[in-house]
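Hi P.,

Sorry for the delay on this. The queue was packed all week, but I finally got your sequence through. Input first:
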Amino acid sequence: MPWAIVFGLTFLTLLPALLLSMTPMVRLLVVFHFLRQALGTQTAPSNQILMGLALMMTWFLMQPVLLDVERTALTPYSAGTITGEQALDLGVEPVKRYMLHYAREKDLAIFASAGMAARPNKREDLPIQVVVPAYILSELKAGFQIGAILFLPFLLVDLVVASITTSIGMMQLPPVVISTPLKILLFVMVDGWSLLADQLIKSF
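Then the structure:
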């Protein structure tokens, strides 16, 4: 019981960091931030709403991994067949396999060369302290790629509105006053949230 309490409290303390560094939430939050900037709505949706949506999508995407962790580590530990240290080692493996699936070779090589004296023969032999930062870098790159593509149609609307308002002599009216409602209307008409969620899920 004392070790279980210590392990539980430690896990709760590290849970926010684990969610942000070892799950798809990194990519989701980056894409949502780019979307809000592209729409020109600085506070809508709010950070709490975007965080809640990212959290629920992360839970949906990580379900197979979490079930694997429960089957290989939590259930045997609850039954008393393995120790807490063994449960931790077994529970990390499914998450590590998931991160290795999306981590780029280039990012893995950066941290492997900096933190390991000898490079392993297989990706699976890399330690978790190498896989986690490499996974974060890979997810940041993927999020920025999706965000850049997402930004382009809204940038086109801004350019068209700015050129029209300038050509008709409306110098005193900021183009963003006209372009923001048009971008929101365009996003709603194409059912943007459903399309974005569909493409984000398919990217994993």
